[in-house]
């Protein structure tokens, strides 16, 4: 998952200032694809304007911790061309990043949502790069209030209730409209909540299912609640608590947390079999948020990630999966363990994955 970091983290030492180097390291570690934010809402307004992007946090190292200025069309096409040179496929998503004018809020219908993606794919297609695109995730973690501000569930449903009638209607219509322009392109929405509902809600209009799964997620367990991590975006208290209690909480009963992970993975696999849709997961397995930080070690995080990969592969339901959501050059402790990445990507390559 290179999210919006691929474009916003381009200052010296940020990890993506040299795309050739980053992509060569990706291939060295055995990866075949990346998932990035294509900023379709900005492309729909003006693909060549310089946009001022507002930080969503300064405690995480996804994206920029301060305001940055970006254009989209030229860098997107350049990045895709470099991926194509290396036979690296690209999954497209969007976090609906906020610019200074908040133009994302101009999207008020599923038709407009689809049209923003249609314009984006048109630009990619005109450059002869459409075959590089693996799929389109129309919105990251729909209906999370940070990433899907264009949609608001009517009461009594709220953020995270992606299976509400209003949300289902929006998703179905947006995919229907976009598919009318690009019928061969795999399409879906990704989710990070209500995993049990994947099996209960009819999702036949999606070409694949993309659940994001962690044992630390508050939607499946109470790990972060025990640790005292509350996703604080602009102050370090959560990470200070992770230092004090994170690894020790895991080590006190690792099988408890790993069994939560295994059961959630198996729920997703049951949904895949029921709807006859392959699974793709690009954010997953151990903790949701982590970084290089005094007192934090990657060992226990990687341990959980390996169990997640092995469990997912054993189901035979995943067409594509990550080894964690920290597989980018800005996470030095994770990225630097080349052998760990190669070992897990080797397991993925050796598995029988669905088409």
What do these coordinates show?
This protein is α/β, with parallel strands linked by helices. It has one domain: Glycosidases (TIM Barrel), CATH 3.20.20.80. The protein has twelve helices and twelve strands. Helix 9 packs parallel to helix 10 (299-315). 44% of the residues are buried. The model has no long low-confidence stretch (mean pLDDT 97).
Please specify the SSE layout and strand pairing.
Blueprint (H helix, E strand, L loop, with lengths): L4 H4 L10 H10 L4 E5 L2 H6 L5 E3 L14 E3 L2 H13 L3 E5 L16 H17 L6 E5 L27 H17 L5 E2 L1 E2 L18 E2 L1 E2 L8 H5 L9 H16 L1 H22 L3 E3 L2 E2 L13 H17 L2 E4 L10 H4 L2 H13 L5
Parallel strand pairs: 1-4, 4-5, 5-6, 7-8, 9-11, 10-12
Antiparallel strand pairs: 2-3
The strand line-up of the biggest sheet is 1-4-5-6
Structural class, please? Answer: alpha/beta
Radius of gyration: 19 Å
Biggest sheet character: 4 strands, parallel
Instruction: Kindly report how far apart the N and C termini lie.
Output: 21 Å
Number of strands: 12
Strand content: 5-15%
Number of helices: 12
Write down the domain tally: 1
| Helix content percent band | 40-55%
Low-confidence stretches: none
CATH domain topology:
TIM Barrel
CATH architecture: Alpha-Beta Barrel
What is this structure, in a nutshell?
With 355 residues, the chain is an alpha/beta fold. The chain has helices at residues 5-8, 19-28, 40-45, 73-85, 110-126, 165-181, 223-227, 237-252, 254-275, 299-315, 332-335, 338-350, and strands spanning 33-37, 51-53, 68-70, 89-93, 133-137, 187-188, 190-191, 210-211, 213-214, 279-281, 284-285, 318-321.
């Amino acid at each position: 998952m290179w999210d919006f970091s691929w474009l916003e983290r381009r200052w010296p030492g940020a990890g993506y200032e040299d795309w050739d180097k980053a992509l060569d390291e990706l291939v060295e570690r055995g990866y075949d694809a990346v998932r990035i934010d294509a900023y379709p809402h900005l492309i729909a307004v003006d693909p060549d304007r310089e946009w001022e992007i507002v930080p969503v946090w300064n405690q995480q190292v996804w994206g920029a911790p301060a305001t940055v200025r970006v254009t989209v069309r030229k860098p997107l096409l350049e990045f895709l061309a470099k991926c194509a040179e290396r036979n690296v496929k690209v999954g497209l998503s969007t976090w609906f990043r906020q610019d200074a004018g908040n133009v994302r809020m101009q999207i008020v219908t599923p038709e407009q949502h689809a049209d923003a993606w249609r314009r984006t794919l048109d630009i990619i297609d005109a450059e002869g790069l459409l075959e590089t695109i693996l799929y389109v995730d129309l919105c990251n973690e729909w209906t999370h209030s940070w990433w899907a501000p264009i949609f608001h569930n009517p009461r009594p449903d709220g953020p995270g209730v992606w299976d509400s009638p209003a949300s289902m209607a929006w998703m179905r219509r947006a995919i229907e409209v976009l598919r009318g322009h690009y019928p061969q392109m795999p399409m879906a929405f990704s989710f990070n909540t209500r995993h049990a509902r994947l099996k209960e809600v009819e999702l036949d209009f999606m070409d694949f299912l993309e659940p994001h799964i962690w044992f630390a997620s508050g939607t499946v367990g109470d790990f972060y609640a025990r640790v005292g991590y509350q996703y604080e975006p602009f102050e370090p208290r959560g990470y200070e608590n992770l230092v004090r209690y994170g690894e020790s909480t895991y080590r006190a009963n690792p099988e408890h947390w790993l069994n939560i992970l295994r059961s959630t993975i198996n729920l997703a696999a049951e949904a895949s079999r029921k709807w006859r849709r392959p699974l793709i997961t690009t954010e997953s397995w151990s903790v949701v948020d982590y970084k290089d930080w005094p007192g934090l070690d990657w060992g226990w995080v990687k341990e959980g990630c390996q169990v997640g990969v092995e469990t997912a592969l054993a189901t035979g339901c995943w067409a594509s999966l990550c080894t964690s959501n920290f597989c980018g050059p800005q996470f030095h402790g994770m990225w630097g363990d080349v052998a760990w990445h190669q070992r897990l990507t080797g397991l993925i390559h050796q598995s029988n994955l669905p088409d």
